[in-house]
Each structure stands twice: as structure tokens, then as C-alpha cells.
From TrEMBL:
Domain LarA-like N-terminal: from-to ranges: 17-215
Domain spans labelled Lactate racemase C-terminal: 297-431
One Pfam family this sequence matches: LarA_C
This protein's name: Nickel-dependent lactate racemase
Top-level lineage group: Bacteria
Organism of derivation: Anoxynatronum sibiricum
């Protein structure tokens, strides 16, 4: 974890914006800190390949792959879609396949399955990007289609009543290997690990039943108080996902933690629950950034492309930014969204309902994950003043109370015109990967 402290008088700062950057001048405000992820445990620079090799050599709760696999086995490797290209799959997948081949399993018995969840299917070009040049010459990527009944099979029902239907190819493989990146997640608490199963390779109805557990018990209560970044205690959605994962019992996982420089700083491998617990610990060490007090303003970039490829993905940064500012404070969010909102249901929820209460009623009537992204934005606009720098059509966001601008400098001028200067400010350059946490001061020791 890292908090780069910068006091009053700090000058310009450049933040990621899509495939480019935007710059703004914060010299008229009191910058309490620049909140950045560490992406590792010691700050020591280690080659990405060495990080991955070490994880594979020292799996947690599972034997190494060469002791698990037989030459006759079939292996299904679950990978994330293009919105998670920041995981640098092209770096770690060749090393994983190398270990599988070394165990005697030939390429012909290995399949790559993209955990699209309820996202769109990936393109052939995106599959090549995810695998990298070497693997894309040897393999193709199959997109999981949550609507294709021929791809699905029923595994069981959780104690929460969720009927778990998953990708048939994954379930029929001798070994299921999950890959991904561990980050804070506004629904599951942490992304990675078991999320590759639900929602990753689940049926649409399974995904929606699980994610509907994110709402409070009574109308008007909004998002359940335990459903938030970095939280699993009392998080029914997370518990439901875990029950589904236990039914599957995947053979192995390889999960990475990516730092603010965009490289792999840490990795874990092994048992899908035990290794993931260690990954959560490492993420907390590197990406949960302590702050001593809340600010009045948070200037947050989602982290640039592909993290801000659409508004659906960009809402994750709101969950981080709001942890750094007081209720009723100001959030300045940078999200280019070159691929638009990400799903028609996001804009539907934002534009077709004229109040936050009406949006919640729609969520309770027909919950979808895409609508939830819009509802999270609407909830944030209820609690904070949000100024958004984006290429989206302003009409998509102004109905929920966002102030929309094309340039960060223009948005900051509008904030200063309304609230003045000297605002206590935090800057979050990659808000989708960082979770600020208020640290209570220790009680003075008695003499």
C-alpha cells in the first residue's frame, strides 16, 4: 500500500483517460495524498515471469501441476474477457500451459474458455490479445454464452435458492483451472478466485439470482450494507458464490495482482479457496490504502483503457472514490468509455426512470447485473456530488445528477466555482484497483 503525500501547493497532475491522459492543476487545493497501489508485498522489483513461476512452484493447498495431471487428462482453462486485459494474461498463460505440457498433457487436450459472465462474447482478435502471439497460434478461445442452453448443465442449488447452471465443457473436463486477477469488487468484496465460476461461466438466470442478493431486504433500503468492496462478512452474494464453487471444486487457480505500473507484482496458485485467501491478504497489503481523515474532494481516474472501456466497468471506481470523501462530498471521475455504456440496460436504468426510488423498484422487479452498475452510479449521486469527465452523451448521466464534462480542467473549474478553493483533496490515479480505508487514531498510551 502506498500513500504519496502532497500538501498544499501541489501543481499539475496527469491521470489516465482511455488510451490517453488528462491533466489538471490542483495547486489551489490542499492535496492530502495520492492514493496508489503497491501491487506486491515488499516494493522489490521482480520480473513478472519470476513472480508467476514462484507461484506455480509453491502452490497453496494443492500439489504442483506435474503431480496432479496425467497425460490422458483434459484441461479447461478459464480466462477473463477483454475488459480484464489489464491482468496481462499473455504473460502468465504461456507459463501455465508450459507446466501443463510438461505434465504430459498435449495441446489437443487443452481448451481455453472465456468467462464472459453476462458480458458480450469476445471477438477473435480479442482472443488473440488475451492469449498473446505464441498461444494464439496454437489455441483459440471459446466464449461462454450464458444464454446458450446447449452450453449449460445443472450442478445444484445453493442454500440461498440459486440454481447453479454452468458451462458444460468446463464441467466435463478432467481438470478445471481458473485464472484471473484479484481486485476489490463492489459486489463480491474481492474479484478473482471463485468469481470465474459465478458469474464467469454461469447461466444468465444463475448470475441474476446470485447478484439480486446485493439488495437490502426491504424496498427503499437500496444496496445491502454488507455488499461493498473489501467486505465478505454478512455478504450473502459472496457466500452464494462460494457455495457454487464448492459444488464444482476446481482443480487449481492462478490469480495475479497487478500494480499501478500495469505489471504483475504478486501471484498465488493452488486451491481455489486457500490460495485466494492468501491473494486477498496480499491485495490488502498492497492496495488497501490507509487514510487518516476523509477529504472534501476525490479526483479519481478509473485507470485508463481497458479499465474505463465502458461505463459499466467504470462504476467500480466510484466504490473506491467514495471511501476517501465525506458524505455529501465531491467526486471528480475520469472515465472515457470508448465502448459506450457497456450494455443497453445501463442507460435504460439511468434514463428511463426519473428518481432513485423508481430505479430501485425496477431493480427489485427485474434485477440484472448491468442495471446494478447504473443503480450503483445512481446511489453514489444520491450521496455525493459527482462531476464526470467522459466521452459519453451527457444526457445518459445528467438525469441521475452527474455533472458531465469533456475535460478534467473544465470540471475542476466548475467545482471551484461552486465550492471555492482550498478543498482537502485525495487523488486516486487508478481507482478501480485501490480501496482507501479510514484508520482510526490509536488511543494515547497512559503514563
Amino acid at each position: 500500500m502506498e500513500q504519496s503525500n502532497q500538501g498544499a501547493g501541489t501543481g499539475t497532475i496527469t491521470l489516465p483517460y482511455g488510451r490517453e491522459t488528462q491533466t489538471l492543476d490542483l495547486s489551489r487545493h490542499h492535496v492530502l495524498g495520492v492514493l496508489q497501489a503497491g501491487g506486491g508485498t515488499s516494493g522489490e522489483v521482480v520480473a513478472e515471469s519470476a513472480v508467476i513461476e514462484h507461484a506455480l512452484d509453491h502452490p497453496i493447498g494443492r500439489p504442483p501441476l506435474h503431480l496432479m495431471l496425467r497425460a490422458t487428462d483434459t484441461v479447461c482453462i478459464v480466462i477473463s474477457d477483454i475488459t480484464r486485459a489489464w491482468q496481462r494474461m499473455h504473460v502468465f498463460l504461456p507459463l501455465l500451459v508450459e507446466r501443463i505440457n510438461a505434465a504430459g498433457v498435449p495441446d489437443s487436450q487443452i481448451r481455453f474458455l472465456c468467462a464472459t459472465g453476462s458480458h458480450r462474447l469476445i471477438t477473435e482478435a480479442e482472443g488473440h490479445t488475451l492469449l498473446g502471439p505464441e498461444l494464439s497460434r496454437r489455441f483459440s478461445v471459446i466464449s461462454h454464452n450464458c444464454h446458450d442452453e446447449s452450453q449449460l448443465t445443472t450442478v445444484g442449488t445453493t442454500s440461498y435458492g440459486t440454481k447453479v447452471r454452468l458451462n458444460r465443457m468446463a464441467m466435463e473436463a478432467d481438470h478445471l483451472i481458473l485464472t484471473g486477477g484479484i481486485v476489490f469488487h463492489d459486489l463480491a468484496g474481492w474479484g478473482g478466485g471463485k468469481k470465474s465460476i459465478v458469474p464467469g461461466i454461469a447461466a444468465y438466470d444463475t448470475i441474476m439470482a446470485n447478484h439480486a442478493l446485493s439488495l437490502g431486504d426491504t424496498p427503499g433500503s437500496g444496496i445491502h450494507q454488507c455488499v461493498r468492496c473489501g467486505s465478505i462478512e454478512g455478504n450473502r452474494l459472496n457466500a452464494d458464490m462460494q457455495e457454487a464453487a464448492v459444488m464444482v471444486d476446481p482443480s487449481f487457480i492462478l490469480n495475479v495482482i497487478v500494480n499501478d505500473q500495469g505489471t504483475i507484482g504478486a501471484a498465488v496458485a493452488g486451491h481455489y479457496l486457500e490460495a485466494f485467501e492468501e491473494g486477498k491478504r496480499l491485495l490488502d497489503l498492497s492496495d488497501r490504502v490507509p487514510i487518516e481523515r476523509l477529504g472534501r474532494l476525490a479526483v479519481a481516474s478509473v485507470g485508463g483503457f481497458p479499465k474505463d472501456i465502458n461505463f459499466y466497468q467504470s462504476t467500480k471506481a466510484l466504490s473506491s472514490a467514495k471511501e476517501a470523501v465525506e458524505k455529501g462530498g465531491v467526486i471528480l471521475l475520469l472515465c472515457q468509455c470508448e465502448d459506450g455504456v457497456g450494455h443497453p440496460e445501463v442507460s435504460q436504468l439511468l434514463t428511463e426512470f426519473n428518481s432513485h426510488a423508481a430505479r430501485e423498484m425496477e431493480m427489485r422487479r427485474a434485477f440484472t447485473v448491468s442495471k446494478f452498475a447504473g443503480f450503483l452510479a445512481s446511489q453514489t449521486a444520491e450521496d455525493y456530488e459527482v462531476y464526470c469527465v467522459t466521452d459519453l452523451d451527457p444526457e445518459i448521466l445528467t438525469g441521475i445528477g452527474f455533472q458531465v464534462y469533456r475535460r478534467a480542467s473544465e470540471a475542476l473549474q466548475a467545482i471551484e466555482a461552486r465550492y471555492g478553493t482550498g478543498l482537502e483533496t485525495y487523488v486516486v490515479p487508478s481507482a478501480s484497483n485501490v480501496l482507501p480505508g479510514l484508520v482510526m487514531p490509536s488511543a494515547p498510551k497512559s503514563v
